[in-house]
Design a protein that fits this description.
eight-stranded parallel β-barrel; 15 strands
Length: 309
């Protein structure tokens, strides 16, 4: 059996998220989830969201931003969840189904147990939809000025990856970008060099797939991400409880032209049942954002297009 449902991500002024405990009258009773429910025949996902939030918690949706779509396979049925960020509503929140409600802080599991499909949101909600990967070696202009421009435009997450630069040039570039990024409250991750990340006081480390499989534990005090190319890589990242991963190549890339891309269907199939935030990587353009969301990604990672505009 296939079920489609709409889910509302509602936050308050303290950036807490509203969760509800499923009542005894429903399956998975006692488990916590974000409010929402099944899409009825003839309804759009947005119409279902508005109806369910009115019925469950008494609010009228004024504005809602379509976010990610995730597919999950349970024992007796498959469910497709359409997640929306509810940015504006009217009315007072109340438990109309006599369910328990709680405001929770992302990454602090105040309520338990949480439905598997909802755990992803607690990790993903604070991540931006663009993960920028540096490409100074190929860039024809002033790369540092372009970094400043992109940070000013709202980029909040950067991976420093420069395979063609000398070690000295890479370190010097990294120092400058880390300094610039702090002025914009942006996070910077070093590619696959834990020692250098510590030395430069970077915000995190991005593991290549080889290093990912060598680790039995992750460095503390860092944002830790990884490059994944298949389901085995994803499973390892989940076992290590990483913050997020990139999955590639979705489309053909300049850097790996001979590797067959997985396509959006392949991408979606690999991350099915994956409670890990995933960025789509490989030939990504800004126009691919909606495809990324519809395929279950929280956004796109880009090494070239992000710097070219």
């Amino acid at each position: 059996m296939n079920i489609e449902a709409s889910v509302g991500i509602i936050s308050n002024q303290s950036s807490q998220l509203l969760m509800a405990e499923r009542p005894q009258s429903k399956t998975w009773s006692g488990w916590w989830e974000f409010p929402g429910g099944k899409i009825e025949a003839g309804e759009s996902s947005l119409q279902a969201l508005c109806r369910e939030l009115k019925e469950e918690i008494g609010i009228t949706v004024v504005n809602a931003e379509k976010w990610i779509v995730r597919k999950y396979a349970y024992t007796k049925y498959n469910v497709t969840l359409h997640f929306y960020k509810v940015t504006e509503w009217s009315g007072d929140i109340e438990a109309r189904e006599l369910q328990k409600l709680s405001w929770v802080i992302p990454n602090e599991q105040k309520v338990t147990p949480i439905l598997p499909a909802n755990k992803l949101i607690l990790k993903a909600i604070s991540l931006p939809n663009i993960y920028a990967i540096t490409n100074a070696f190929e860039y024809s202009g002033n790369f540092l000025e372009q970094v400043k421009k992109k940070l000013n435009d709202g980029v909040k997450l950067i991976q420093l990856r420069e395979k063609a630069l000398s070690k000295y040039d890479y370190i010097e570039l990294s120092k400058k970008i880390i300094t610039i990024a702090k002025n914009f409250n942006a996070k910077v991750l070093i590619n696959s060099d834990i020692e250098l990340a510590n030395k430069l006081n970077a915000d995190g480390i991005h593991l290549n797939s080889s290093l990912l499989h060598k680790l039995s534990d992750i460095p503390k005090g860092f944002i830790v991400a990884a490059s994944c190319h298949n389901k085995l890589d994803i499973e390892k990242a989940i076992a290590l409880n990483l913050d997020f991963v990139v999955l590639s190549p979705v489309q053909k890339t300049q850097s790996h032209p001979n590797i067959k891309p997985m396509g959006w269907d392949g991408f979606s199939n690999i991350i099915k049942k994956c409670n890990m935030p995933v960025y789509a990587l490989g030939g990504m353009e800004y126009d691919d954002m909606n495809n990324a969301y519809e395929s279950g990604a929280i956004g796109i990672a880009s090494q070239r297009a992000i710097w070219e505009s």
